[in-house]
Every structure is written in structure tokens, then in C-alpha cells.
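Appendix B. Raw example, untouched.
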Amino acid sequence: MLDTVGPTSVTNPRRRRLHPARLTLLGFGGGILVGTVLLMLPISTVGPGGASLIEAFFTAVSAICVTGHVIVDTATYWTPFGQTVILLLIQIGGFGVMTFATIVGVAVVRRLSLSSRLTTAAETKSFGINNVRALVINVLRISLVIESAAAVVLFAWFTLRYGRPVGEAAWLAVFHAVSSFNNAGFSLFSDNMIGFVADPVVSLTLSTAVILGGLGFPVILQLLRWWRRPLLWSMNTRIVLAATAMLLMVGTVYITAIEWNNPATLGPLDWPAKILAGFFQSVQTRTAGFNSIDIGGASEATQFGMSALMFIGAGPAGTAGGIKVTTFAVLLFILIAEVRGQGVVNIFGKRLSRAVHRQAISVVLLSVAVVVAATVAIMLMSGLSLTPVLFESVSAFATVGLSTGITAQLPVGAQLILAALMLIGRLGPITFATALALRERETLFQYPKERPIIG
């Protein structure tokens, strides 16, 4: 005799599963809650009484979103315990986003047609969705190797060049290595990295870690496997490398040229230090957030240019924020194809899917809308002018952390808006782009074509 089960006696397990976007949001929300509680403990602050709710909450959001925006001085306000909490939040946030973005990328590939999946697999030799454990282990291994290498260099330099005690040098090295690879921008120096503006070892070590973290795990993995065989690199890897190099060069020339004679920034430095500082700040706009010059003292033209670079960000599936260089490159190639009158968009010998056109435009338009709305709201609350508020809003949304110095002076409502921007900027582009990719379905009918007048 066979047992029969009614349709209502067993709950479909799929209905009990949370959507990945909700699960990720809950994970970050839980991390923010725990971080806020820990930072409010009296043991976390140097002064008596502990941090206020807004100070602890804002710092926790900034740390787990690997942004670097602060309303209190990280070096003097927090005790070693509080700084350790911040460091752990940075590591969890950076590793969590990197892993989530990579797994989501695999999931998107799995939803493609069989022919598309075979093509993608042949191009990238990426992990399958059933090999998530190996994928996560590789993300962790790469993160720890890069952070350890940066920490060793910084530790040796802090002890040999600056004579720091071994324990202090080790803590400074580890903290800044983790902060740089995760593109966080938190620093244990009250003036951030201004004291090392002419130091090539510190500046270049941090810059290297920032760039590697911003490339993204898929790119790093492909470079490790086939660094001598660029013909096997995927379109994503080629775009990220080319766009990163171009934007770093453009940013360096732009910042250095405009600030060359500015007495508040590069003016007092000799020419090698000026070039080093210009390069360092260009790297930080990849969403890292360290500063070796006074951002508030920079010209409005420099601040505006840095805002554009921050908005673009770095590579996908990495520790950086922004709309991502791939989105920017796709729009650029669409523009080039349109100007040339080409019916299709070709990138590095491959034809770009039309679905990607819509996804890139949607991500950019929504990101612009979020930044504009937040900027207007903060201007109304604070009474400040456009340039510094726009800079602060873009920096928060792109999870950069660079600041003109107005964050701590903003009213609580404006600080909460910045906190929301950090969370939206960290999770929004990933989840939104994923939703667009996973919701694709074939249309069974089409309406007649008609073209409105453009321009």
C-alpha cells in the first residue's frame, strides 16, 4: 500500500528560501547591528561613556560597506578594541561582497542558454555553481595572500624607516593592509595618509593593494592562471584591465595638472612627490578612500573630476564600489558604435549582447537618480553648496570614503542619508544588475517598431 501525501501537507522548500538579495541585505543588516552594539560599549572608546548611537551606527555602516566615511577620528576616538571591531567589519564586508558578487556571477551564467554557457565556460574556465566551496576558498586565499604581503612590507617599513615599536608597527601594518585591499580607506593616522605624501613605499604599497582589490576575483584568478596567454582572457578581464589602466592614467594627469601649484595640496611638494601624490589620489578614487592631500583644499574642478572617477568605480565582483568600469566601458562602446553608425557593439573581437545595453543604462540612470536625490536632500538639510555635498554623496554611494571634511558637521538626518547611500551603493548595483540578468525571459510577441525624434 502506497502512502499518499496531500498537496497541503508538505511545504514546497523553494517557497521558504529567501531571495539572495534579501538574504544578503539581512546579513549586512545583522553585521551593522552587531557592530553598532560593540562600538557603543565603553571599552570601544577612549573617552568616558561610550560612543553615541549615531557615531557607532555610522561607523559600523561605513566599515561593513568598506567605505571609510567617518564622523569621529578613528585614530584617537576608538580604543584598540574599537579599532579591532572596525577591522573585522571591514574584512567581513569586503570578503562577503566579493564572495556574493562572484557567486551571483556564476548563477547568472547558469541561467543563460546552453550554447551561451558553453561559450562562457570555454572563455573563462570559471567555477561551476556546484563548486561554490572551492570558489569561496579561493576568494579567501587570494584575499589573505594579498593582505599579508602588503602587511609585511608596511611592517618592515614602519619599523626600519620610522622606528615604530614592533607591536605598534604590526598593528598599523595589518590594519592598513586590510583596509587598502578591501578598498575601505579607514586609517589609524589622524591626518589619514597626508604624513606619507612623499613616501613611495607606503603610497605604492597601499595603491597596489587597492588596485588588486578593485580588479575583482574573476580577473585576479584569470591573471594567475593565464597571465602569459591574454588570448584566453574573457571580455570582462580585458575590459577591467584596459579601463582601469586608462582611468588611472587620466586621473593622475588630471589631478596632478590642476593641483600642481595649489598651495593647499601639491604646491609645496617637489615634482616627484607631486606626481606620486597625484597617482595616489587617482588610485583612491577607485573607491579606496585614503588621502595624502587635503581634499577640502583641492579646487572645485579637481573635486568634480574626482567625483566622476568615484562614480565609475572599479571592477565588478571585487571590493570596490561605483557603477563599475565594465558598465562605463559598455556605455562608451555603445556610444562609439552609434557614432560610427554600426548596428552592433563589438568589444575586443566579441559582440556585446543587447540585453547588456539595457542593463548598463538602467544601472547608470538609477545610480544617478539616487545620488541626485540624496544631494538635494542634504543641501536642504545643511544649507551647504553643491560641490562639497555632491562630492560627499558620490563618495558615499561609490563606497569611497574621500571627504571634503563636512561629514562630521552635517546634521544627523544628513548623516543617515549618507549611511543609506553607503548601503545602497554597496548592495544596490550588484542586486539590481543581478535581478535584471536573472529576470530575462523570451518575449512571445513584438509590437510594431516606431522611432521618436532623439536630440
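End of appendix B.
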